[in-house]
Amino acid sequence: LECNIEGNKTETGRSPNDIQVFCDHYKIPHYALDITNNLFKKQLTTSHNYPALIYYMMDEHMYPVVDQKTRTHIVRSSAFDESKVSKNSLLQKEFKDDKEDRFKLEYHENIELKDLDNYKKCNIFYHTANLYDKLIELYKTK
Q1: What is the pLDDT of residues 48-69, one digit of tens each?
Q2: Cα-flanking dihedrals φ and ψ of residue 71, to 5°?
Q3: How far is CA 114 from the centre of its chain?
Q4: Which residues touch 5 (CB under 8 Å, ≥6 apart)?
Q5: Most buried of 59, 62, 97, 139 (most Cβ within 10 A)?
Q6: Which of 45, 32, 35 is nearest to 88 (CA)?
Q7: Beta bridge partners of 43
Q8: For the whole prediction, is pTM greater than 0.85?
């Protein structure tokens, strides 16, 4: 993810607001923290289909929180202080309206990493519980 905490994209990547569009579509609770452990983005859903997306944003990159104890701590501690997190607003709705609807794009599954350059303007899904190994492999090949 290449953007800053304010949500401004750099040349590539997605902002926390872009990620929120995805989370809204799939009804995923969304928590984003900065390097100093401050929660700067929190959006809950009344009912959700998936576990919360919880990550740290540092150096214009997204680092998912996978440790269950840490995830539980973040969710519980953020429940008590709503004043420190962003709220859903009309601005975010306007932002959504301006974005290309990614969910209408064609999708592909389990594409070999060496072939990724052949896929533009689409969604690619991998059926795995952990993308870490794919990420490492991608860095080695690119």
Answers
A1: 889 999 999 887 789 999 999 9
A2: -60, -45
A3: 24
A4: 16, 34, 40, 57
A5: 62
A6: 45
A7: 30
A8: no
